[in-house]
């Protein structure tokens, strides 16, 4: 059996990666519809050697579509997801629009695949930094409970979209030319600079991106007691996010034990050469599927804590790949139809 798929936001950074992943992985695509705003209508994009014309999303866009991979921002998802579901499609939504809705599963296939079974038409793809963190932390949390996570992120321009990536290059060029860089997409010049993540700040002083890591991790782990705090920072890296993660366990976890667990964990690759001071780097995570984990060490300030350093491609595992893996999970387990609870054994899809 093959499926009719639509990409909403096909012309964006994540959209391009979705096209690439649909072509390179074995998702049985019978028909692919590319949707974006009216600005892009008429453009054509390549899929498996064929040109497909991008259409402006409309009421008719979702007729006869089985799976919608949406990556066009929260307001676009809010405007179209219900219409797509009413037309009989399952929406795998990359925006933050529905993530915290109780009836919408928030899924990282390596962590909580079973949650996808009980969707009611919409499945949410978590925030990119949260996906990368949960892939690395979940296998450890399974063996010895993690009580508290303290994270600092180093987030690339790609998280702000394709235009932000372009802007960083232009800013860098301006600086090299001795000019003063300007910022339009990003709030401040990012080239040769960094700034705390510019999402809205709440009454506690946490920005939205930081609160996503707190709240989404709890939902994905199905653990309302896990304590999470984060400082999110945008750095002048084009693509792939990095995170310094401190984990406080209920009982001590040795470095050796953590390495053994992570070496077998799905979606994780340990990258460590202590003699060469070689650890995960965004340029090496770029374009790759696994979350790279390194600098796994005992926290000298706390006997129950470990330090990790991770890098992962924000557009791939942090967005498009996770969404495609969710689609694969639905197909393999025959979970495309909305249901109020499917308790069949799950087939886990590894990245
Ligand atoms: P368009 O290229 O027509 O603006 P990125 O995250 O890289 O900025 O990409 C955002 C994606 O979301 C693009 O494909 C963009 O299409 C799409 N998009 C943005 N706003 C809308 C909208 N109102 N309706 C449909 N697609 C939208």
Automatic annotation (TrEMBL):
InterPro entries: Asp_semialdehyde_DH, Asp_semialdehyde_DH_beta, NAD(P)-bd_dom_sf, Semialdehyde_DH_NAD-bd, Semialdhyde_DH_dimer_dom
Catalytic activity of the protein: L-aspartate 4-semialdehyde + phosphate + NADP(+) = 4-phospho-L-aspartate + NADPH + H(+)
A Pfam family: Semialdhyde_dh
Group of enzyme by EC: oxidoreductase
Pathway connected to this protein: Amino-acid biosynthesis; L-methionine biosynthesis via de novo pathway; L-homoserine from L-aspartate: step 2/3; Amino-acid biosynthesis; L-lysine biosynthesis via DAP pathway; (S)-tetrahydrodipicolinate from L-aspartate: step 2/4; Amino-acid biosynthesis; L-threonine biosynthesis; L-threonine from L-aspartate: step 2/5
Catalytic residues of the enzyme: 128, 241
Binding, NADP(+): 11-14, 39-40, 158-159, 314
Annotated CDD domains: ASADH_C_bac_euk_like (cd18131), VcASADH2_like_N (cd02316)
Residues given in the record as phosphate binding sites: 99
GO molecular function term, any single one: aspartate-semialdehyde dehydrogenase activity
Binding-site residues, substrate: 155, 208, 234
Keywords, comma-separated and alphabetical: Amino-acid biosynthesis, Diaminopimelate biosynthesis, Lysine biosynthesis, Methionine biosynthesis, NADP, Oxidoreductase, Threonine biosynthesis
Entry EC number(s): 1.2.1.11
Semialdehyde dehydrogenase NAD-binding domain location: 4-119
Physiological role: Catalyzes the NADPH-dependent formation of L-aspartate-semialdehyde (L-ASA) by the reductive dephosphorylation of L-aspartyl-4-phosphate.
Similarity-based family: Belongs to the aspartate-semialdehyde dehydrogenase family.
Quaternary assembly: Homodimer.
This protein's name: Aspartate-semialdehyde dehydrogenase
Source organism of this protein record: Gloeocapsopsis crepidinum LEGE 06123
Lineage per the UniProt record: Bacteria, Bacillati, Cyanobacteriota, Cyanophyceae, Oscillatoriophycideae
